[in-house]
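TICKET: design request
STATUS: open
ATTACHED STRUCTURE:
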């Protein structure tokens, strides 16, 4: 008796998501879960190697750690509040206002989020420092400099997350409220705001998470005066050499990160089912009166908050002794602090390229497996592979530093480990970029190709790939810029004679000397320009705005 047609294919379809998903899950287990578990173990054993979980409470229960936790949470809460206040008008602008050149506005809003954090810190030092544009405010060296920089960095999360939901929201309930006599403010407060609340809560949780685990911004703007758990882990490791204390602080931070991720997951779950809209939701044109004023205010936020800081960085890099000069850029070809900045540029580009390819390969396998997978295992695998996006990069770098020596060849001596760490951080973004595009493909197209005799790999190649090609290009771009600007994990892993450009900028900005500062400024501008160009290309090729990162 012959085997029923398609039975072999059915078995293949049942097993291949598991096979594909095993690769990124295994990679995440080795290069993320193992290092994090090793940190937890390091914090739970005493100096004699005995398992003593109670001892960690003694390390936590000190006034110094209490101050670290209070400052970490306090500045994160203040940064989140300011980010919401500035980001919600921009979200409305992107969602409900038809503007000429809106793609340029999207690029301007998105670029700060993918800028290297060390570049953001340098930009605000050049903006707020004595003798600079906003030096008269006296904010340089205060906690407000950190809060402002965090708002600049994270406005894109609020604008894109809330704005995406807002754009897809059915406007008819608000229109009905207006028709029944409610004013625009009341209609928004009673009809629109409650439906936006889950998206706002989700964005707030993510912003809080990023601000609580911020490294480059706090290190550059706060120095040793303002320290968070993130920067203290780094200082305890590379300056004090107290690995147990660093591990204890990492565990404390992991608990905070887990709580923030749980809140974000609950908020996203609450947002489901509240954002459906007709196929073509009307978009309001800037009208007279209140709407036009609101649009102008939102554009002013984009200009003042998002354009002026990087613009001041560019201007400062071109000013020497009160005149205009390219001196800072000429220095890039000379030796500064023992390293030629152009060599660091080459190292950064090469490492980011390797990391982007690795993140794409892993993220593509994960997205295909998650798209075709079913059941509880799919949800668990999805959550597991998203963890690197939420866990501190400093924690990941520290964990890799203390574990990778156990592997053959000791990867700690190889530049490949830097690319691996950057790929781990970028992979969740690749998955989140590709998965919605894959889920949007009509299954009937795949079924028709299968009926015509195409095997599953051929179906994916001929049906799925052409439809997700633009999302694939966007995923590669995001992975590249994230890897290019990664600072937290790379600062642990980069070799002293082969630093990436962000690591070199952090080194230069902490040293006195006009040439050191000039090289740091020129390097920061170079990174910002490359990032901006790539984000502009991504926005140009994206199939659609999915509303969140």
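STATUS: resolved
RESOLUTION: sequence designed for all positions
ATTACHED SEQUENCE:
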């Amino acid at each position: 008796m012959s085997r029923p047609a398609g039975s072999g294919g059915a078995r293949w379809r049942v097993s291949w998501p598991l096979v594909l998903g095993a690769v990124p899950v295994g990679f995440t287990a080795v290069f993320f879960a193992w290092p994090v578990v090793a940190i937890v173990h390091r914090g739970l054993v005493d100096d004699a190697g005995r398992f003593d979980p109670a001892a960690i409470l003694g390390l936590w229960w000190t006034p110094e750690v209490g101050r670290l936790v209070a400052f970490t949470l306090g500045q994160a809460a203040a940064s989140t509040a300011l980010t919401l206040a500035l980001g919600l008008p921009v979200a409305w602008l992107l969602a409900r206002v038809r503007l000429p050149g809106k793609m340029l506005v999207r690029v301007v809003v998105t670029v700060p989020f993918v800028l290297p954090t060390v570049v953001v810190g340098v930009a605000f030092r050049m903006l707020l420092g004595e003798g600079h544009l906003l030096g008269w405010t006296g904010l340089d060296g205060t906690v407000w400099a950190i809060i402002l920089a965090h708002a600049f960095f994270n406005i894109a999360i609020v604008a894109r997350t809330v704005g995406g939901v807002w754009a897809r929201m059915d406007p008819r309930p608000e229109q009905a409220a207006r028709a029944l006599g409610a004013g625009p403010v009341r209609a928004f407060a009673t009809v629109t705001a409650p439906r936006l609340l889950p998206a706002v809560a989700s964005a707030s949780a993510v912003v809080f998470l990023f601000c609580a685990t911020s490294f480059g911004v706090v290190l550059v703007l706060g120095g040793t005066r303002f320290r968070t758990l993130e920067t203290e882990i780094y200082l305890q490791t590379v300056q004090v050499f107290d690995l147990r204390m660093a591990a204890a602080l990492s565990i404390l931070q992991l608990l905070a990160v887990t709580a923030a991720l749980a809140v974000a997951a609950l908020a996203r779950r609450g947002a489901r089912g509240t954002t459906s809209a007709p196929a073509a939701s009307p978009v309001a044109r800037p009208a007279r009166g209140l709407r036009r004023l609101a649009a102008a205010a939102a554009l002013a936020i984009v200009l003042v908050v998002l354009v002026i800081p990087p613009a001041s960085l560019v201007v400062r890099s071109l000013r020497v002794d009160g005149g205009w000069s390219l001196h800072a850029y000429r220095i890039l070809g000379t030796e500064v602090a023992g390293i030629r900045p152009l060599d660091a540029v080459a190292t950064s580009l090469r490492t980011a390229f390797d990391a982007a390819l690795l993140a794409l390969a892993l993220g593509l396998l994960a997205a295909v497996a998650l798209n075709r997978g079913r059941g509880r295992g799919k949800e668990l695998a999805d959550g597991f592979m998203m963890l690197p996006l939420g866990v501190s990069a400093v924690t990941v770098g520290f964990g890799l530093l203390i574990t990778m020596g156990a592997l053959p060849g000791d990867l700690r001596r190889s530049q490949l480990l830097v690319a691996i760490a950057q790929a781990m951080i970028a992979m969740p973004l690749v998955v989140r970029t590709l998965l919605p595009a894959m889920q949007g493909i009509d299954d009937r197209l795949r079924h028709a190709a299968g009926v015509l005799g195409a095997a599953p790999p051929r179906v994916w190649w001929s049906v799925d790939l052409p439809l997700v090609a633009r999302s694939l290009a966007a995923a590669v771009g995001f992975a590249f810029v994230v890897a290019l600007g990664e600072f937290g994990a790379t600062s642990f892993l980069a070799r002293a004679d082969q630093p990436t450009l962000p690591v070199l900028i952090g080194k230069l900005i902490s040293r006195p000397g006009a040439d050191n500062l000039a090289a740091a400024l020129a390097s920061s501008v170079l990174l910002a320009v490359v990032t901006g160009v790539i984000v502009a290309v991504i926005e140009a090729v994206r199939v659609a705005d999915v509303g969140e990162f």
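CLOSING REMARK: The beta strands are 319-320, 323-324. The first strand starts at residue 319 and ends at 320.
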